[in-house]
Specification:
Chain lengths: 230, 588, 451
């Protein structure tokens, strides 16, 4: 039943005895964790969208200098960022594998894949930290330019969300042998969603933070930032 | 988002053991709701005292030596922030949302009880951090509840050192707490409704809280974003909101940021926040009006659609708070239009409340008095909103006492009337005791008439052009001396209202201790929370078997039926019918 | 029952308040009658709805109050009725919105013949700038702001030289001449409001906002800051004086241009010393002050402050108030200064004197420190004074003098003259010192400071 037809029901009308559709419904499997995750991802999306919108607005002020595009700008060399992207992709893959193994009831393989996924996250964070150091050494510390304000802030915030994911996964480790055959694949499905979401988010941030000025200008224009807006 | 008919039906909740797990580290939504409510009411009383102090200064300037302009601004700021966020949001969602959602949709508890408990303790932490700012050097922030930069973090503003930082930290913690609670409310509504409880059979209370929670989940991130960025501007010296500034004659190390950006973020949160408070109030008052008028809510579907429409529209009206902020003036056309459009579904709700009373059988109980009082104050506050929403009319009135009068009427008095209505309505279920009727009536009359005497004259000070957030008015030629007498009388009325709230607290305590025992369903209401086997409901709410729902929440005075209410869990075969023909004609 | 009655009473009471209220819009002094008109439309429409809905509510509550044996009607919905109500509401909304947007379209488009005037706000006072003969305002840069260049004008911009600076809270405008106010702030958000003009707009640091109006009534009007800007927000007052073209031109001719303000006159300390002999009789040879003669210390006080006070004495802004005996004495003396050059020399000499060191006085220093935190925003943590805030040095100023001036400010003996803006501000602030003890304590604290 679509949400529209649900909302146009006339609830005061009696349903024929024994044929009330509300009671006929085959009970869908309740999965509140999945609903919660959907809303959580929506909330996180709003959070990052707003940061990005402020970045686009800020990029239209005259003193804004992007971090990439010209050879002398620090992020024109993206090797460090590609490395961390690779690590994060690997982590997502491992999480997917863990989920797949769990459906095959391969407990050891699940443990291995899960460990690898977490380890790759930690490596990713370390790789990001290396990029930070490189940037800072090149004279683009946290507070040095408006663009680096955003670079550090957004990467840090993304990292915090990854760490949150790692913490959420820890109980799964502890209960790996206790989890019944039913719940583990479900839990890992949700972990996969979260992992892939953060990978996708990272790819977007990567693209945005290393975009040349024209790209930002186009995006800002699409968001309606004119000269007088900010 | 599928509907689950039987989640939790098979789960048996064991009553937890010790005092600590039962009343302190409890995961029971009812205990958490009471914890939320008591904390919110406590911090609300702090804010009430602050408002009394502000009024003393405004009514009798120069008479109270301990209030100087620094203190005054601190009182203004803390009063506003506490009332909006830490009282209204926390009490309506954390308190009533927590208590009523599982009971009204027929669930044993929230779907994530542990997260729910964590939500309360995080909220308590945010309150403690906020209150701590009263005791740090420089005191709490005095930047106004909108915390506009640059001034919020610059010298020349009270509490621009530790005070503002604690405020930002406290808000961030509050948002975490809200998100944990909010995910629970949304998931419980979507996934834990009992068999037969379709979306359109839910009471409007649940609808209001549900939509408000979604608004909160999507709007609070904006506040978090602005808080994080301002925190960094203050602590590490980024320039997100900070342009080149000469502060008190000295050049600061900032440059390039945009103060208006903060305002956009703040109001992108701030306007939905109005509806985060209003929608639960709309829902609750609908149920109270229907119950005490013994009549179905008029136009239930319209009421649901209006809640959803208002919720959606609330995200595209934020810049009506910024008509004179120096933003691109062309935005005014768009935001004035959206703002006045939102008045249509809101007006419809008012009509439907009044039409619910039409041909009703109105019992003027204390909750009903508050609910009727709400209609009056909300009509007043809503109509004055049409002044401020219409961009040109806002020009002379913005930043004056008209604004103060308006938002207190619509967002202060009105939700508070509903809160009191709700407390008087559900107190028998929560505590098993009836509140004292006489004290309740006295409390109502004092609050209803008193607040109107406080806030109605403020609109006229606003027409005159008296600016808000002024510590003293002296030395302004266009303000006649009579304005000061008006201010003094407002203060007297405000103090009476404040005293009335002490009467209310006394009523709570007296009734808890010596009150008459309440029956399970003293108002003869249809909704599930009144049908629990025990009063107050025990852990797990509904005994061994969850109720099945056969009808909507508003079968009051159904023609042909013997009683003037049919509880939601009663199948047709169990309804006592006197006149089968009339009963069938009513669609039953 | 009672509730129906009370609602009727409240509706009638609201109407009575509305009709007999003395608190209503100030008489309009600009072209924005159209704003008043849209307000009137809104008052009428919302007023009618307010009365109808609430009287109907009262009637319904009275008519359908619970009675024994009575049963409520059952009617889930009535689409037709709801449809009508939605349609009627929409018409009412449109009737308010359409004129509103029409007038707003005028507000966002200043007329072509509008003259630009810059209002520059900073904590907690106003300054203004008018374009010179070239009709163009020069470029500005906030980071250039200094005592010599208080508006941060870019000196290299040729358009800036003839800009007219008004380093005062008072702006004079020409009657019936459209004005486009350009709004700029040095520090935090402010707001430019003249209630009689109806329009207002925030000043935002880092950008320029604007509003426009035509002053249509001659007279003097308060300028208020209506965006919270710190502890001194309520004391950030200015004045717009609307005058006929002749009077306006006369006033304009007396104002200095940016170029003139940048010329630093050569002051001769020796000449100044000669002039000072007359002052020395009371204020002492080293400018150390003399309590017996009621002459405060001058050494160490900033030149800009002494200059402003001397000018105020000369113009009768200070020293004329009833009760200010010593001020009257000084006013007579100030009039002996022949011209601005003499004043320059004199101030140069005083500036060369070693600052007076504060002497500790009786009083509760700790209490004084708490009271002083409101003073510190302007006068500085060490009471060193701050040109940008128009706040004179307090450290080293005799305690008896400070105490006397504070009570003068409190009693409006000082700061009551309409042209003494900064004095008026101090007079507002001084109200928070509630007692003699407060004054003694805060002075004791000030005297414990050494900048």
């Amino acid at each position: 039943m679509s949400i529209f037809s649900k909302l146009t029901e006339k609830p005061w009308l009696a349903q024929p005895e024994g044929q009330d559709p509300a009671l006929q419904l085959t009970a869908d499997e309740a999965w509140p964790e999945r609903t919660a995750l959907k809303f959580l991802l929506a909330t996180i999306s709003v959070l990052f969208s707003l940061f990005v919108i402020t970045l686009l607005g800020r990029s239209q002020l005259p003193d804004f200098q992007v971090l990439a595009g010209e050879p002398w700008l620090p992020l024109s060399d993206r090797s460090g960022l590609w490395l961390s992207t690779g690590l994060l992709c690997g982590s997502s893959l491992m999480m997917q594998l863990a989920q797949w193994f769990s459906r095959q009831h391969l407990a050891k393989a699940v443990l291995g894949a899960l460990t690898a996924a977490v380890a790759l996250i930690l490596l990713f964070l370390f790789a990001q930290y290396r990029v930070w150091l490189q940037l800072a050494n090149a004279g683009f510390g946290f507070t040095d330019t408006a663009a680096s304000n955003y670079f550090y802030l957004l990467t840090a915030l993304h990292g915090v969300h990854l760490l949150g994911g790692v913490i959420a996964v820890l109980p799964v480790f502890l209960q790996l042998d206790k989890q019944s055959g039913q719940t583990l694949p479900r839990t890992l499905t949700l972990c996969c969603w979260y992992w892939h979401y953060l990978l996708l988010l990272w790819l977007l941030l990567f693209w945005l933070l290393t975009s040349p000025a024209q790209t930002l200008n186009t995006l800002a224009a699409l968001c309606g930032f004119g000269e007088a807006t900010l | 988002m599928t509907m689950s008919a039987g989640y939790g039906d098979t789960q048996q909740h064991d009553g937890p053991g010790s005092f600590w797990t039962r009343y302190v580290w409890s995961q029971d939504h009812k205990v958490i709701a009471i914890q939320y409510s008591l904390t919110a009411i406590f911090v609300g009383l702090v804010a009430l005292v602050l408002s009394a102090l502000m009024r003393l200064q405004l009514g009798f300037p120069g008479q109270f030596s301990f209030i100087d302009s620094t203190h005054y601004l601190q009182f203004v700021t803390m009063h506003g922030m506490i009332m909006v966020v830490y009282l209204l949001t926390a009490l309506l969602l954390g308190g009533f949302g927590n208590y009523l959602i599982p009971l009204m949709v027929g669930a044993r508890d929230m779907v994530f009880p542990f997260l729910n408990m964590l939500s309360y303790w995080t909220y308590l932490l945010s309150v403690l951090v906020l209150l701590a700012s009263f005791f740090v050097p420089g005191g709490p922030t005095g930047a106004g509840w909108t915390l506009y930069p640059p001034q919020a973090i610059l010298p020349g503003t009270p509490g621009s050192e530790a005070g503002i930082l604690l405020m930002l930290i406290s808000l961030a913690i509050f948002i975490v707490a809200f998100t944990m609670g909010g995910l629970n409310y949304v998931c419980t509504v979507l996934q834990a409704r009992t068999r037969g409880m379709t979306l359109m059979r839910m009471p409007l209370t649940v609808w209001g809280i549900f939509v408000a929670t979604i608004l909160g989940l999507l709007a609070f991130p904006a506040l978090l974003v602005s808080a994080v960025m301002m925190f960094l501007d203050k602590t590490v010296g980024t320039s997100f909101f900070m342009p080149v500034i000469i502060s008190l004659g000295e050049q600061l190390d900032y440059g390039g940021g945009s103060p208006i950006l903060f305002q956009h973020l703040f109001w992108f949160f701030g306007h939905p926040e109005v509806y985060i408070v209003a929608l639960p109030a709309f829902g609750i008052v609908s149920d109270i009006l229907a119950t005490h008028a013994r009549k179905n809510i008029f136009g239930y579907r319209m009421m649901v659609w209006a809640i959803v429409a208002i919720g959606g529209l609330s995200f595209v009206v934020w810049a009506h708070h910024m008509y004179v902020s120096g933003m691109n003036p062309y935005f005014g056309f768009f935001f004035a239009t959206t703002t006045l459009i939102i008045a249509v579904p809101t007006a419809l709700k008012v009509y439907n409340w009044v039409l619910t009373l039409w041909q009703g059988n109105i019992h003027l109980t204390v909750p009903m008095l508050f609910a009727i009082g709400f209609i009056f104050t909300f009509v007043h506050g809503g109509l004055t909103g049409l002044f401020l929403g219409n961009v040109v009319v806002d020009l002379p009135l913005s930043d004056t006492y008209f604004v103060v009068g308006h938002f207190h009427m619509v967002m202060g008095v009105s939700p508070v009337m509903v809160l009191f209505a709700a407390i008087y309505h559900w107190f028998p279920k929560v505590s098993g005791k009836l509140l004292h009727d006489g004290l309740g009536k006295l409390h109502f009359w004092g609050t209803f008439i008193g607040t109107y005497l406080v806030f109605l004259p403020m609109h006229y000070l606003g027409f005159l052009g008296v600016p808000r957030r002024y510590y003293a008015m002296a030395g302004t030629d266009f303000i006649p001396a009579s304005a000061q007498s008006l201010n003094s009388s407002i203060t007297v009325a405000a103090l009476v209202v404040a005293l009335m709230q002490l009467l209310f607290i006394a009523n709570l305590i007296i009734s808890l201790r010596w009150g008459k025992a309440a029956s399970a369903n003293p108002w003869h209401a249809t909704t599930l929370e009144w049908q629990t086997p025990q009063t107050p409901p025990a852990h797990g709410n509904f005994g061994p078997q969850l109720p099945t729902v056969y009808r909507w929440a508003y079968d009051y005075s159904v023609p042909g039926a013997r009683d003037d209410f049919i509880p939601q869990h009663l199948p047709d075969s169990a309804v006592a019918v006197d006149d089968a023909q009339a009963y069938a004609k009513a669609g039953k | 029952m009672a509730i129906a009655f009370v609602i009727v009473v409240l509706v009638i009471g609201s109407l009575l308040l509305h009709y007999y209220s003395v608190w209503w819009f100030t008489p309009l002094a600009s072209n924005w009658a159209s704003i008043d008109f849209t307000v009137d439309i809104t008052v009428w429409i919302t007023g009618v709805v307010f009365v109808i809905v609430n009287l109907f509510l009262a009637y319904v509550v009275f008519r359908f109050r619970s009675q024994p044996g009575h049963k409520a009607h059952y009617e889930p919905e009535n689409k037709k009725l709801e449809g009508w109500l939605v349609a009627l509401t929409s018409i009412g909304i449109a009737a308010m919105l359409a004129p509103g947007l029409y007038v707003w379209a005028q507000f966002v488009q200043p007329p072509v013949n509008a003259k630009e005037v810059e209002a520059f706000g900073q904590q907690w006072h106003w300054r203004f700038r008018l374009p010179g003969a070239d009709g163009q305002l020069g470029k500005v840069d906030t980071s250039l702001i200094s005592e010599q260049n208080p508006l941060g004008i870019v000196p290299s911009d040729p358009a800036a030289a003839d800009d007219i600076l008004i380093l005062s809270n008072e702006l004079v405008l020409e009657l019936d001449q459209p004005v486009k106010m350009l709004l700029r702030s040095a520090d935090v958000l402010h707001n430019f409001t003249v209630p009689q003009f109806r329009v207002k707009m925030d000043l935002v640091p880092g950008s320029v906002s604007s509003l426009w109006f035509i002053p249509t009534q001659a007279g003097e009007f308060d300028v208020l800051c209506e965006e919270l800007c710190g502890t001194g927000h309520f004391a950030m007052r200015g004045r717009v004086s609307v005058r006929s073209t002749d009077e306006y031109q006369h006033w304009l001719a007396q104002q200095q241009t940016f170029a003139q303000s940048q010329v630093v006159s050569e002051a001769d300390i020796a000449l100044g010393q000669a002039h000072y002999q007359l002052c020395a009789a009371c204020h002492g040879a080293e400018g150390e002050g003399n309590k017996q003669l009621n002459a405060p210390a001058l050494a160490g006080q900033s030149g800009w402050y002494l200059r402003r006070q001397l000018q105020h004495y000369q113009q009768g802004i200070r020293g004329r108030a009833e009760g200010d005996l010593y001020g009257a004495q000084m006013a007579a003396m100030a009039n002996t200064l022949a011209d601005t050059a003499t004043m320059d020399h004199l101030l140069a000499f005083i500036n060369s004197l070693p600052p007076v060191v504060a002497v500790h006085t009786d009083g509760d220093v700790k209490r004084g420190q708490h009271l002083y935190r409101n003073c510190a925003s302007c006068h500085g943590n060490a009471a060193e004074g701050n040109y940008a805030m128009n706040a004179p040095r307090l450290a080293g100023i005799d305690s008896w003098y400070l105490a006397r001036q504070l009570s003068y400010f409190k009693q409006r003996v000082r700061g009551n003259h309409p042209d003494d803006f900064y004095g008026a501000q101090m007079s507002l602030i001084a109200q928070s010192l509630q007692s003699e003890q407060d004054i003694t304590d805060v002075v004791a604290y000030i005297n414990s400071l050494q900048p």
